[in-house]
Amino acid sequence: MSTRAHLVIACDDRPGIVATVTGFLHRLTANITALDEHATASDGGRFFMRIEVETALMTVEEAELKEAFQREVADQFNMAWRWRAVRHRRKMAILASRADATPLELLWRWRRGELPADLVAVVSNHPDLREAVEDFGVPFHCIPNHRDIRQEAETRMLEILEGTDLLVLARYMQILSGEFLAHRPNQVINIHHSFLPAFAGADPYRQAFETGVKRIGATAHYVTPELDAGPIIEQDVIAVSHRHGVDDLRQLGRDIERRVLAKSVQWHLEDRILVDGNKTVVFV
Amino acid sequence: MSTRAHLVIACDDRPGIVATVTGFLHRLTANITALDEHATASDGGRFFMRIEVETALMTVEEAELKEAFQREVADQFNMAWRWRAVRHRRKMAILASRADATPLELLWRWRRGELPADLVAVVSNHPDLREAVEDFGVPFHCIPNHRDIRQEAETRMLEILEGTDLLVLARYMQILSGEFLAHRPNQVINIHHSFLPAFAGADPYRQAFETGVKRIGATAHYVTPELDAGPIIEQDVIAVSHRHGVDDLRQLGRDIERRVLAKSVQWHLEDRILVDGNKTVVFV
Amino acid sequence: MSTRAHLVIACDDRPGIVATVTGFLHRLTANITALDEHATASDGGRFFMRIEVETALMTVEEAELKEAFQREVADQFNMAWRWRAVRHRRKMAILASRADATPLELLWRWRRGELPADLVAVVSNHPDLREAVEDFGVPFHCIPNHRDIRQEAETRMLEILEGTDLLVLARYMQILSGEFLAHRPNQVINIHHSFLPAFAGADPYRQAFETGVKRIGATAHYVTPELDAGPIIEQDVIAVSHRHGVDDLRQLGRDIERRVLAKSVQWHLEDRILVDGNKTVVFV
Amino acid sequence: MSTRAHLVIACDDRPGIVATVTGFLHRLTANITALDEHATASDGGRFFMRIEVETALMTVEEAELKEAFQREVADQFNMAWRWRAVRHRRKMAILASRADATPLELLWRWRRGELPADLVAVVSNHPDLREAVEDFGVPFHCIPNHRDIRQEAETRMLEILEGTDLLVLARYMQILSGEFLAHRPNQVINIHHSFLPAFAGADPYRQAFETGVKRIGATAHYVTPELDAGPIIEQDVIAVSHRHGVDDLRQLGRDIERRVLAKSVQWHLEDRILVDGNKTVVFV
Q1: Chain D contact set for B134 (CB, 8 A)
Q2: CB distance C15–B33 less than 8 Å?
Q3: Least confident of B31-45, B189-203, D239-253
Q4: Residues 11-40 of chain A whose Cβ lies under 8 A from any Cβ of chain D
Q5: B162 and B252 housed in the same domain
Q6: C180: pLDDT confidence band, cut at 50, 70 and 90?
Q7: Who contacts A268 (Cβ-Cβ below 8 Å, separation ≥6)?
């Protein structure tokens, strides 16, 4: 069982943060195996840090360490921070619709161990994916949803999703209400099938086709109440040409959607993403 | 001296176009060395074709060929078409401002023979690039321009640019009037420093920074009276991260601007770009 | 049912080929919807052409057309050529080993209709993938194979594969004998997990790691008796860094392997690949 | 004038390095603005670190700091390390031949301030670039060189290059002797016009053409006595097809050569590259 842990920190930038945090860890014989940090300005900005720690030799319990960290380090820098032992896996659920490409990509990577989480459910507003999902040994729930029954659908989903701490929208075509999202800040990842901010909203491949762009893209982002406008995690594009019709764009785009979403979910599960206002800091 | 020629055709799609055109060329012993075609729909769309021809063995004069082509081929298909002997080089001018990256890229490639045109002038609204341009043996004209003197500036430019058939805006920061553009349909290429349609208008790198995108891009397009909305010729992007400030984006973006613009100008000069409404067909 | 067909041609280059072929098709009211051609030299090289045809209005039977084409066109240019009605789907089989990434990618895309072929079998020298394959409704055959039993294994495979006209090696780790390959020129596609010609042979990700390359790649190629040296169909790469160990390269590389192999198989099935000596012409 | 400095460290990995180094800097009020580290193994590997420091408030002289760092930190971890104040710019020289693309790219970026070094000379074995180089105000030296006069040529070059600490081979076509290189470990950067280790040696674009690869590349590496085999700094590739002849590959490849070389030189000048045996650690 893994004895590694991730420590993630955000605070206003001030001299001495790195020395204080790493000195603290060293005293407790928590050995740093990776460290990334970022300051948003040379002076007076925000500071973000991610540390990977090997705790096999650590002489204190995790609870004790956390308490000491708050008292000796976090308080003086007014830090927001999170310590997560790698063996404490997150509980993840997937929301899908009819399209199978992105949900299957996640299921397949999860089965390979590339997505270190407990996958507790796939929820869809259509029954189409039931067999494919259950083949992976993952519970499948069909909860119809559209504008007129959204509240009821979300109530049922909240029951099923209770206790999950990551929700992945894998081409889920319904809008989630502000109330639903309010409980999950930066815990819902969506894939949008365009290079945002271009082509937000409906049918982005058709928009791309009609605009005549020479690259199409996909964007993974945290979901906020404003449609397709939450903090961007990752984007990628692929070249297209006049030869490609809308259906070709859909086929070509699927590959980017799968890749961009899977990477973003993996990064989230590895504690690599910190949110900085409406932007992200991604330590890779 | 080259005996090659390019034949470019656009018309409504109908059976028999390829056979008719290639049969005509074959009878006149104009040998086809490359052929690209594109139909926008399987039935009832538009048809575009580009043919490279070797005319060394051709038994008729160019004028005679053109007349015969109109009579025997173009009329029956109601074609828009252009025949250009490669030895008839286009006359190109560059409009620049203070920034040297894209104008110098074009000058270098032109000197190296990668841009097959006569480069007759570089015009700028600032004097900064005079020495750099004149080092290439190219005439440099400084014509101040801003909103209040636009008409006068454009009048002077039109004099200098008379006889040119390609105008390249290499980060020229002034808007050209509809009257100026009216005489040059699909003959003015601009580079916009974003992945259009995202971040049209002013200071796109700052817009990109504030949006937190993970790729920045550049777009070359034909200029139409509507700002940053003309037919897109080429686009490309590069990965960026939270580590990059606005100035970093400007530096990284310059590389893409240079590459995308130079490629687009080369394609235009090689008759590879056909305009299809507000989109382009690019045969590469 | 599709009434489209593909005509693929290779011959020595001479004036008049395009006109002769397209004139022939036009006379038979076979309507050209796409045409690509390539000449390897401006004079005296080889000529390759691919034409997509709509035959709904064609007034002759396919057999008659083929006979007439041979007599009226192919003979005079000494052409190698193939006419394939799109409704005549190829029979494809997959050879796999233990790794599931590339076989599953092909199965998914096949089920989605992106690979227009009849998938008649997956053969593996290990039983691991049986369930995953059979979930797709595709027959799975486990035929153990290693150096000492190669002849026997290949005999059994040849029985199963009889009648197939495309064999895809999706990380099949065994070498196929020259006798086995002799019957299938340019009908066996392999994915090699490196950017060939770099790192041919065993364990290319380890070779890449030890060399310290900053990009890893994958290469799809037709299999010839010389290991990893057949005509290259497609390649791609991905950026890596000092942070990536051999296992990271394997994970990152899988994405490229899947994409490069799937694209190559699709192109083969769409008659887009012509072999030119030890190189390929790929019309996309 | 900049008050920033870079501290670069390599040593065997052991617990406490980060805490010790950052604690030392904090005590001297040298404020860390960026930190990157890398360990080659989770246990028992090598450790590499790069720190950017703001020294405006530092209370000791640089000499004193260095002495204290050696005594209090470096000795206990047996570190190889380098402290460089950013205002102490390196002295760089370029070796070129006839081709102008990569030397001009470096000159142009250097003039823009993207390459923070004193550019003291361009040396070429041909006179062709004299005017272009001198336009940038940089001394140009023509020192003929070939196999038979190598020793004499290198003697003259060593005189001119005395005091330089970075030598960039921008398509310099001559081999440098082991003696010449011996004095400059990891201080000579070469651009090779292929994706190494593929196509080492002469005329890689022709090799690539004849192999039929679908991507061509360029590789920047530190020069060692073994030809084209030194530690790789950066690589990139571009898609090519059957349509591209050897000359097309040369033109397309130039863009990658320019970009890959310029990036690598910039990284070297910013102290971002550490050498780890025959590989590099690049902190970007």
Answers
A1: none
A2: no
A3: B31-45
A4: 15-16, 18-20, 22-23, 25-26, 29, 31-37, 39
A5: yes
A6: very high
A7: A166, A189, A233
> Are D54 and D107 part of one and the same domain?
no
Put simply, whether B104 touches D (Cβ < 8 Å) is yes
Contact (CB<8Å) D114/B259: no
pLDDT of the residue at C245: 96
For residues A36 and A61, state if they share a domain.
Answer: yes
Q: pLDDT tens across A16-59, in order? A: 999 999 999 999 999 999 999 999 987 889 999 999 999 999 98
**Does the complex come out with an ipTM higher than 0.90?**
yes
Q: Is D228 on the interface with B (CB under 8 A)?
A: no
**What does the mean pLDDT of chain D come to?**
95
pLDDT reported for residue C44: 86
| C214 secondary structure, DSSP code | S
**Do residues D44 and D163 share a domain?**
no
Token pair recorded at residue C125: 């020298």
pLDDT of residue C129 exceeding 90? yes
Contact C114 A259 (CB under 8 A): no
Compute the distance between CA of residue B107 and CA of residue D120 in angstroms, rounded to an integer: 26
Catalytically active residues of C are 228
Helix (H, G, I), strand (E, B) or coil at D150: helix
The pLDDT of B183-209, averaged and rounded, is 95
CATH number at residue B18: 3.30.70.260
- The domain tally of chain D equals 2
CB pair distance less than 8 Å for B243 and A213: no
**Residue A48, token pair as written in the block:** 């973000």
Domain identity same for D129 and D97: yes
| Residue C221 structural domain | 90-282
Interface test with D, best of C13, C36, C191, C195 (most D CBs within 10 A): C195
CA–centroid distance for A102 within its chain:
14
Q: Which two tokens stand for residue C176?
A: 């196929």
Among the three residues D66, D85, D104, which one is the final residue of a domain in this structure?
D85
Residue D1: the pLDDT is 80
Picking from C85, C119, C140, the residue at the C-terminal end of a domain is C85
Q: What is the pLDDT of residues A181-193, one digit of tens each?
A: 998 889 999 999 9
Residues C110 and C162 in one domain: yes
Residue type present at position C74? A
Q: What's the pLDDT band for D59 if we cut at 50, 70, 90? A: confident
Which of the residues B3, B7, B14, B18 would you substitute to probe the C interface, choosing the one with the greatest number of C C-beta atoms within 10 Å? B18
Are A120 and A76 found together in one domain? no
pLDDT at C185 over 90: no
**Beta carbons within 10 angstroms of residue B87's beta carbon:** 11
Query: What pLDDT was estimated at residue D117?
Result: 98
Domain shared by C125 and C158, yes or no: yes
Residue A135 has φ and ψ, to the nearest 5°, of -55, -25
What 3 state SS string does chain A have?
Answer: CCCEEEEEEEEECCCCHHHHHHHHHHHCCCEEEEEEEEECCCCCCEEEEEEEEECCCCCCCHHHHHHHHHHHHHHHHCCEEEEEECCCCEEEEEEECCCCHHHHHHHHHHHHCCCCEEEEEEEECCCCCHHHHHCCCCCEEECCCCHHHHHHHHHHHHHHHCCCCEEEEECCCCCCCHHHHHCCCCCEEEEECCCCCCCCCCCHHHHHHHHCCCEEEEEEEECCCCCCCCCEEEEEEEECCCCCCHHHHHHHHHHHHHHHHHHHHHHHHCCCEEEECCEEEECC
Q: Is A182 on the interface with D (CB under 8 A)?
A: no
- When CB atoms are compared, the residue of C214, C279, C281 closest to D232 is C214
Q: Do B32 and C42 touch (CB under 8 A)?
A: no
D184, pLDDT greater than 90: no
CATH number of the domain residue B171 falls in? 3.40.50.170
Structure confidence at residue B59 (pLDDT): 83
Q: Please give the single-letter amino acid code of residue C172.
A: Y
